[in-house]
User: Fold this.
Amino acid sequence: MKIMTTHLRKLVCAVAIAGTAGASMTSFAADCPIPSNLRVVIGSTSTGGDTYQNSSIVADHLAEKLDINAKVDAVGAMAGFRALDRSRNGNTVMIFHDQSYLGNLYGVNGYDNIFEKYTVGPTVAINPGNAYLVPKDSPYQTIDDVIAAAGEGKEVRVAIQPGGVSEIGFSALKNAVKMKYPGKESNVVAVNTGSQADKNQLLFDGLADVINGSVQANEQYTRLPSDDQKAMRFVWLTARNDTIKQTSEEGMGKTSQKELLQYVNPNVTVPQNESENFTFDKEFFFLYNKDMDPKIVSCIDNALKEVYAEGEIQKEQKKSFFIPNFKPSSEAQEYLKDKRDQYAEIIKNIK
Assistant:
């Protein structure tokens, strides 16, 4: 009888705990005025790129935490901004990256000042793979060689997609030449093009000396033999040293973390000003309609804070070569404004 009583007490206790947990989860969702069906637009039209991949990971975890449905919609930047403009009730949010403010700095049509027109939400991840590459048989062994060549009067053609993430490293390179060799920065010439495949083709055809690429997209070409027309070498990764150190030791493909660290500051330096070197992490974050209920902003902050505290999302992000990077809205807003202002200074210096 005593044994049965003990078992009964344990059963009642277990049911009570389960009920409390369920009530807590229900209360968490109930206290949040977010719609039950959330549309997450992204600034890319590709469902195979890093923006979609990262946004899907975040949206899935957020939906589970809030007990809602969340659908990622790859509509592209302009359509994404317009969707935000129409959504004051919070049924549409956006996940994008630094392109959202860089486009405005570069004067790209359709890119408004996000810090004035929208509410900047939390950061969620970094893509550490932004890179610059040369043909494997290039005379430029390092990014210093590229800067020196431009300073000595040689034209260096750099293939980029203008107006954003692809161009900011080019701007930094041009700024570094101006600092070291005043008046010679015009020797760093942009070859404006579109997709990564287009940039790669310019390198294959000898129409560019350097291209902007990524670890994810271009690592495979760095493993080709030197006599292959498509063989490339990394000369610079723009990510911070600490960011690359957070990747797995295996790195990406067959290029280890140790090898990737050879291409970041301080092993590779591109001066930004007299006291610091340029770095750039491609960071993903939420954007909201300016008039959206602040309670929804707070709700998403709190939900993501719990998600990141639990630790599972980090495992998924790192598997896909993303670095987890949660900052709540208030912290993210100040951090991204400061980042924007630093890059604005570089762009201003080379105009």
Remarks:
- DSSP finds 14 helices and eleven strands in the chain.
